[in-house]
Design goal:
Layout (H helix, E strand, L loop, with lengths): L1 H41 L2 H35 L1 H34 L6 H30 L5 E3 L2 E3 L3 H5 L4 H30 L4 H35 L1 H8 L5 E2 L3 E3 L2 E3 L4 E3 L2 E3 L2 H7 L5 E2 L13 H32 L6 H10 L2 H15 L4 E3 L3 E2 H4 L6 H28 L17
Antiparallel strand pairs: 1-2, 3-8, 4-7, 5-6, 9-10
Length: about 450
């Protein structure tokens, strides 16, 4: 049990750290491509400057993400050897293709960074587009492996041994599409709003700065569209969970009893001993409608499953509520921007709007962390749903707490380095009141 706790804490910390860089690695290259496309279309040098600065930020975060991702690949084998022995031949295709996408992203990011004015502008933009596409593909392929852990397919289990292995079928598991769509939109929404928040803060200090105005517009365009679409992908993902992982859905919603016309709960505190969720705002038949498109549909509660196969409902329910609340707030800010633009044909830059964007900027990353908590903790006690328990997969090697301490120190150091580098980037942003001698910043 001590080994299990240490291994799970280390994996949670590693995933929680890495997922931030993975999400930014998916979305920031798209934003730099949009900025360069605007420069190619308008000739405005500010867009070129913006594309170059976002590319530098992408390079910094890519490097740290590569380190944390490499650590994760080692941890899978070191902490969960039984899992890797069983699952490796089945999910190896997903990891192999992800490696190909990763190296493609690295190569073309180098081209993008160092080939300004050395290759034709359309070719340079195409290199950035490849970075954006390969970054998104890399994330999708990793998520396919997680989808397989939730809905394992592509093999036949005989006496505990996987036979008739079909890696493409494992890659295209039942949860693949819903998880990939939900996570990709989450990356665009979280990164877009995060970047928008930074530039909103800059605009509050320098209201006439065209650099930050254009940056805010692009960031909100990417993050805002994704934020508005995200609830629809979440609805689809929840319906897939209802069909393939009903215990997880019951934990997400604090649904202890199997019932028809099950209510949708907003908030609430689940009590596993009393088998009730108190203080929740309940919408009659809401869960039945959302899960099965039928108000009279039966929703299986936690009482339909053995006690040793029920996830920790309090953690899963709270994380789910945090994720939904953050997503709704992000969508509200995005709709504010959309409505204001539709009415005035201008991006709002009033103090109230900029403050709202700044306050919403960290919510996307909080939602991603909460969402992955729902995905991973909601699958417990299984590491592979219905096939292998987490207790069966963990290593028996002693000393994991020392490993946990070492990796914590590593991630803390990487985090400090990233913050220092990004703060330097923010401080060197072009200013609207820059002296004439600094005008070259706009075209650098």
């Amino acid at each position: 049990m001590t080994n299990l706790l240490a291994a799970r804490l280390q994996m949670a910390m590693s995933l929680g750290f890495h997922i931030i860089f993975a999400a930014i690695g998916i979305a920031l290259p798209l934003m730099m491509c949009v900025a360069e496309a605007c420069w190619l279309r308008t000739g405005d040098p500010i867009y070129r400057t913006l594309a170059k600065r976002w590319a530098k930020g992408a390079a910094i975060l890519f490097a740290v993400g590569a380190v944390s991702g490499t650590v994760l690949s080692f941890e899978l084998g070191l902490l969960w050897p039984t899992f890797m022995k069983f699952a490796g031949p089945i999910i190896g295709l997903g990891f192999g293709l992800e490696g190909f996408a990763f190296f493609t992203e690295a190569i073309f990011l180098g081209v993008y960074l160092y080939a300004w004015d050395r290759i034709p502008p359309p070719a340079h933009w195409a290199a950035g587009a490849i970075v954006a596409a390969s970054g998104a593909l890399s994330g999708v392929l990793v998520v396919s492996v997680n989808g397989w852990m939730n809905t394992p397919t592509g093999f036949t289990l005989i006496d505990g041994v996987a036979t008739d292995i079909n890696p493409p079928a494992a890659l295209m598991n039942p949860a693949f599409v819903s998880e990939a769509l939900h996570m990709t939109l989450a990356a665009y929404a979280a990164t877009g709003l995060l970047v928008a928040g930074v530039h909103a803060l800059m605009l509050r200090k320098d209201r006439e700065n065209p650099f930050h105005r254009r940056a805010l517009g692009i960031a909100l365009a990417v993050g805002g569209v994704a934020s508005v679409l995200q609830p629809m992908s979440g609805h689809y993902a929840a319906q897939v969970v209802a069909e393939t992982q009903p215990p997880k859905l019951a934990a997400m919603e604090g649904q202890f009893q199997t019932e028809r016309r099950a209510p949708l709960r907003i908030g609430g505190l689940p009590d596993a001993k009393a088998r009730t969720t108190s203080y929740a705002l309940e919408i009659p038949a809401g869960l039945s409608i959302l899960a099965y498109n039928d108000p009279d549909a039966e929703v299986r509660g936690l009482d339909a499953f053995p006690a040793d196969e029920q996830p920790p409902v309090a953690v899963v329910h709270l994380a789910f509520q945090v994720m939904v609340a953050c997503g709704m707030a992000m969508m509200a800010v995005s709709l504010w921007a959309v409505v204001s633009w539709w009415r005035t044909k201008r991006l709002p830059t009033g103090r109230a709007f900029l403050a709202a964007v700044a306050l919403a900027s960290p919510l996307g990353m909080i939602a991603i962390e909460a969402g992955w908590t729902v995905t991973e903790v909601g699958r417990q006690p299984w590491i592979i749903q219905g096939v292998m328990r987490t207790t069966e997969a963990v290593t028996t090697v002693p000393g994991l707490w020392w490993s946990f301490a070492a990796y914590t120190a590593l991630y803390a150091g990487l985090g400090v380095v990233v913050v220092m580098l990004l703060l330097h980037q923010f401080r060197s942003s072009p200013r609207a009141d820059a002296p004439a001698g600094e005008a070259r910043r706009w075209t650098s």
